[in-house]
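Per reviewer request, we include the raw input and output of the structure prediction for the construct analysed in the revised manuscript.
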Amino acid sequence: MIFPAIILLLVYSYGPMLGMVMSFQKFIPARGFLDSQWIGWDNFRYIFAMPDFHRALWNTLLISFMKIIANLIVPIAIALLLNEIRKEAFKSYVQTLIYLPHFLSWILLGGILIDILSPTNGIVNQVLGFFGVKPIYFLGDNSWFRQTLVATDVWKEFGYNTIVYLAALTGINPALYEAAIVDGASRWKQTLYITIPGMAPIIVLLAVLSIGNVLNAGFDQIFNLYSPAVYESGDVIDTFVYRIGLIDAQYSVATAVGMFKSVISLILISGSYFIAYRFANYRIF
């Protein structure tokens, strides 16, 4: 039963790894892998000397950490609020409503966000105009672009991420709440001393596992929202590789950047799973 999945994995995941040899060559497509000139570590020296690469690396780390923190805090807060709703019909309606953006692609959302965030006729700037705020170029101003990326990513994913924390809430022993009520604890005290500590293991686990995605700032989102005007604040490793590899046709340099990212990601993922096993008793096998 797993044989077709293994074949697909070998063809589409492990097979393309043979192309990593390009990072050590001056690759020319007409000559192929075998006849292209071998230049060793020159591509890596070249990328480490590029100011654009350092900028992309910094933006990747900053945007990723901002997203990780925001995507922990907001879903936890929403899960706690949903847990306080007593009318199941209304609770189900709210859950369904906030889940929907997760199933929309960034291609579709990119077009929607470009329209509603437009500084000329976007609804967001029109609303801000009623309060005397000057139009803000959310997608074209380096001082706003990162915050816009994080806010829109949270808006898209917080409903789906809430599922995990709602599941964690169901695992808390109801007897603890009953004992707290007998002792006169308010809803806030129950949340502070029972609910949040009960969710702590899953919060720590997800926070640790998210370390492995530090170098994945969200290519789909950024590619559909950014422009040359915001390269300074929004250009990340994935978009940098896209431009130098597919647009500038510097295949060897792009492969070297991708290999650098893969090696660092492997180290981060391995470290995060070790920490998760060490402190949260989480294991894959």
